[in-house]
Amino acid sequence: MKSGWTTFINYELGYQWIFNKIMSDVNDNKYIDQKGFINLYMTITPEFRIESYLEYYKFGNTNARTTQFWDVKLNYRLKKQNMNLFLQGNNLLNSNSIQRFSISNISESLYTQKLIPLHFVLGLNKSF
Hints:
Blueprint: E1 9-23, E2 28-43, E3 48-58, E4 67-78, E5 83-90, E6 97-103, E7 108-114, E8 119-126
Antiparallel strand pairs: 1-2, 2-3, 3-4, 4-5, 5-8, 6-7
């Protein structure tokens, strides 16, 4: 779901449920994966904009807690120089890893992926 307002704030919302079920002679198993997000876009002035991205993951059949990611980006546009300056903070909640459960006809697997810790990026985009 997206907003289309002409005011200073807009948003995007989404949520997804994925139902998984496997049946075999030896084993029956089912689980639900959940993914959600909310994105906020705030235009403070025509030159200054803030973008916020929050994502939520809950994978079925894991004992792991839910995993959330929050990124924020500050944009400042220099119109005369055709440049955009930005400061971006990634993984502001400092999540260490994400786990996912997978089932197939022959196996059950638990994947753990390490994540890049909280960090900031200062950047400049230039149009020629």
